[in-house]
Amino acid sequence: MSDYGIRISADGIDVKTGSDKDMVLTSKYPLLKGSISGSGVVSVPRTGVRTNVSIAHGLSNIPMVSGSWNDRDGDEFDPTMYYLLPTYYISFFELAFSIKSDATNVVLSFSIDDFGSGGAAVDIRYTYEIYIDKAKV
Fold first, then answer.
1. Which residues of 18-42 are buried (b: 16+ CB within 10 A; e: fewer)?
2. Closest alpha carbon to 107 in 44, 46, 54, 29
3. How far apart are CA 24 and CA 66, in angstroms?
4. How far apart are CA 112 and CA 137, in angstroms?
5. How far apart are CA 87 and CA 91, in angstroms?
6. Most buried among 91, 104, 122, 124, using CB within 10 Å?
7. What ranges make up the beta strands (E) of the chain?
8. Which pLDDT tens digit goes with each residue over 65-123?
9. Which domains are delineated in the chain?
10. Number of H helices, E strands in the chain
């Protein structure tokens, strides 16, 4: 095995002796060479109803994605802080935010349930990164 830095093997494969194609990740090849990024704001009701944002990616594969969010107006969280997706929080209310991708879209999902306390919808600012290159194994 050559010394390339990081190797993570697939389940059941010895990371020291497995071939490059059996690795989940190897730093031997360029990874995540570029990305498509964006941001927006979505108004999320406090009723527990899921609000989805779909972004068509136009790629020929299912891409790896990441995202973050913040409470634009500081209704519940510090508006100067960004939090990574997915997020699940439960206290006086339940908050469930996630990000996923499929062959066509990246979907960000937002749900806030204040258990009937009432209150205006929360404006959530989100960001996303769609990684456009797969490892060249």
1. beeebbeebebeeeeeeebeeeeeb
2. 54
3. 18
4. 41
5. 13
6. 124
7. 7-9, 23-26, 35-44, 51-56, 65-71, 83-84, 87-90, 94-101, 105-113, 122-131
8. 999 999 998 888 889 999 999 999 998 889 999 999 999 999 999 999 998 887 889 99
9. 1-30 (no CATH), 32-131 (2.60.40)
10. 0, 10
